[in-house]
Write a structure and sequence with these properties.
With about 400 residues, this protein is an all-alpha fold. The chain contains 18 helices and 2 strands. A two-stranded antiparallel ribbon has the order 1-2.
């Protein structure tokens, strides 16, 4: 383990450089972090003490990446609450159902056309269905669209995706990680996983008054240690019963979101979410051999094409179902097209379950392409709508909505 600190320093330097470049270009950091990981790794030569293969530090970087998943999902749980779900129920359920049904159906159909086995089919559908809440939220803020009429629908779909992800990841992880080979085994794993999820939520909700008192601690140091211990214990417990540890982190966040200390937890956790989240994307890039991407190019491009079409159609249908204008509805589909952390989580689930090796490079290319196209389509959503509107005539241009008044007395 010689030069381990130096190697970690090199990794952090690459991550910082990628983040700095993305900030200068005002673009999502996700593709830069993945690319930074892909250009180094085991296929790189060693130049003196500069070892960009990261062989000795691979276990540490992997663990930091796993922490990144936990903090991303934990924070997502903190942002979500059952109260918000009930208030925006119709928008969330209607828009989310349309979006998930269309995109999940396309994902399953795509994997079926690729002739992948059942478990690979389910993982691939998960990879192609869930959009990146991190990229979507960042674009809404950066483009100052938080007050737009379609933003409630966008956030509603993201919330619905989170619920779907929790249930779907629980079911699929039980099937993939437990090695269940029959319907009864898969059903048993699913029942155990769902039972665990419901038990944590019910116990956590009943324990909210006790948690409020227990977390009433003046010292930020002690407070943060307790939060971290809770996060890792719940995530670790979920892993022991073949439920993805990311779901345990999400459940921990959901439980603590009901306490009066939610804002304090969010404030203290954000730096860890950003730091370890960056390491998560960087480590994912490290696991990808660029020379092995060739076989995944056409599957990734095919999936990207289906996702672009499915997202736009779902956005139009969901938006029009709640009487948004065609332009606002198109913004919905173009804004949530990015894929990121959840697709990678699903790909890692497939790797941990020993599924087909193509899932990793497929997910890498798929996420990389959409992490680049997504922000571009969001920024140019008006231009995209105007070009498509010339073909489909969803909405007349403003100057054509009414005839100009005549002043010469002619009819």
């Amino acid at each position: 383990m010689e030069h381990i600190v130096f190697e970690v320093g090199l990794a952090l330097t690459l991550v910082a450089a990628a983040a700095l470049l993305s900030a200068r270009l005002r673009f999502s950091v996700v593709p830069f972090l993945i690319l930074a990981g892909m250009v180094v790794g085991p296929h790189m030569p060693k130049l003196g003490i500069i070892d960009l293969r990261f062989i000795h530090t691979a276990p540490l970087l992997e663990f930091m990446g796993r922490l990144g998943v936990l903090f991303l999902l934990f924070y997502l749980g903190l942002e979500f609450s059952l109260g918000r779900l009930i208030k925006a129920g119709r928008v969330i359920v209607l828009g989310g159902t349309i979006y998930i049904a269309l995109n999940f159906g396309l994902g399953v159909g795509f994997a079926w056309l690729m002739d992948w086995p059942l478990r690979e089919m389910l993982v691939a559908a998960g990879i192609t269905t869930i959009s990146s809440s991190a990229i979507v939220a960042k674009m809404l803020v950066d483009l100052k669209r938080t007050a737009n009429p379609e933003t409630e629908m966008i956030l509603g779909i993201i919330m619905f995706e989170d619920i779907f992800l929790a249930v779907y990841l629980t079911l699929v992880s039980g099937l993939v990680l437990s090695g269940a080979s029959s319907f009864s085994q898969a059903a048993t794993s699913a029942v155990i996983a769902l039972g665990f999820m419901l038990a944590v939520l019910v116990v956590g909700r009943k324990a909210t008054p006790w948690l409020n008192r227990a977390l009433d601690i003046s010292s930020d140091e002690v407070f943060l240690l307790i939060i971290f211990a809770t996060l890792l214990l719940v995530a670790g417990l979920s892993e022991t019963i073949h439920v993805a540890e990311a779901i345990g982190a999400l459940l921990a966040g959901l439980v603590l979101a009901e306490t009066e200390h939610r804002q304090r937890i969010e404030h203290l956790v954000i730096p860890f979410r950003d730091f370890f989240g960056a390491m998560f994307f960087f480590h994912f890039g490290l696991t990808i051999d660029p020379y092995a991407l060739g076989g995944a190019v056409w599957p990734a491009l095919g999936a990207v094409a289906l996702t672009l079409a499915g997202n736009f159609a779902a956005g139009m249908l969901a938006g029009r179902s709640v009487r948004l204008s065609p332009r606002a509805s198109s913004n919905v589909g173009l804004t949530i097209v990015s894929r990121g952390e959840f697709s990678i989580i699903m790909a890692n689930l497939g790797r941990n379950g020993g599924l087909l090796p193509i899932l990793q490079p497929f997910a890498a290319l798929y996420v990389l392409i959409l992490a680049i196209l997504g922000p571009l389509l969001t920024m140019q959503s008006r231009f995209v709508f105007e070009q498509l509107n010339k073909i489909f005539h969803w909405q007349r241009p403003p100057e054509m909505k009414e005839d100009p008044p005549r002043v010469d007395g002619t009819p």
